[in-house]
Amino acid sequence: MAAQQSQGIQTLLEAEKEAAKVVQQARQYRVQRLKDARTEATKEIEEYKKLKEREYQEFESSRHGTTQSTQSAVDKETDGKLTEITAAYEKSKAAVVVKLLNRVVLVKPELHRNLKKLESP
């Protein structure tokens, strides 16, 4: 009977060792699969980045001409407005100087309105 028990225990120990090996292999397989998945994801990300960069470059090159023409149109409009503003300045500069000098030089001395109220009663 003792021999049977010891043989049963031995069988259980071997089964336990086999189960530990299977668990260890499963862990290693899982770790390897995670590494492979990361590598694959990194490759996909790089490919996607390259694709989007290429699309951006194509978009930019197709829009480059319109950007320059728009910029030149804006520059022309700005130059025209500056010319108008400069002409208006030159035209009314003398009149503004005269108005300012009249306000500064021609002063009518009179009492302050609060002082007038005090003297009224």
TrEMBL record:
Keywords: Hydrogen ion transport, Ion transport, Transport
Gene Ontology CC annotations of this record: vacuolar proton-transporting V-type ATPase, V1 domain
InterPro entries documented for this protein: V-ATPase_G
Keyword Protease: no
Biased composition (Polar residues): 64-73
Region (Disordered) residue spans: 57-78
Claim: Transport is one of the keywords in the record: yes
A Gene Ontology molecular function term of the record: proton-transporting ATPase activity, rotational mechanism
Similarity field: Belongs to the V-ATPase G subunit family.
Known function: Subunit of the V1 complex of vacuolar(H+)-ATPase (V-ATPase), a multisubunit enzyme composed of a peripheral complex (V1) that hydrolyzes ATP and a membrane integral complex (V0) that translocates protons. V-ATPase is responsible for acidifying and maintaining the pH of intracellular compartments and in some cell types, is targeted to the plasma membrane, where it is responsible for acidifying the extracellular environment.
Subunit structure comment from the entry: V-ATPase is a heteromultimeric enzyme made up of two complexes: the ATP-hydrolytic V1 complex and the proton translocation V0 complex.
Matches recorded under PANTHER family: V-TYPE PROTON ATPASE SUBUNIT G, VACUOLAR ATP SYNTHASE SUBUNIT G
Protein name: V-type proton ATPase subunit G
Species, as recorded: Rickenella mellea
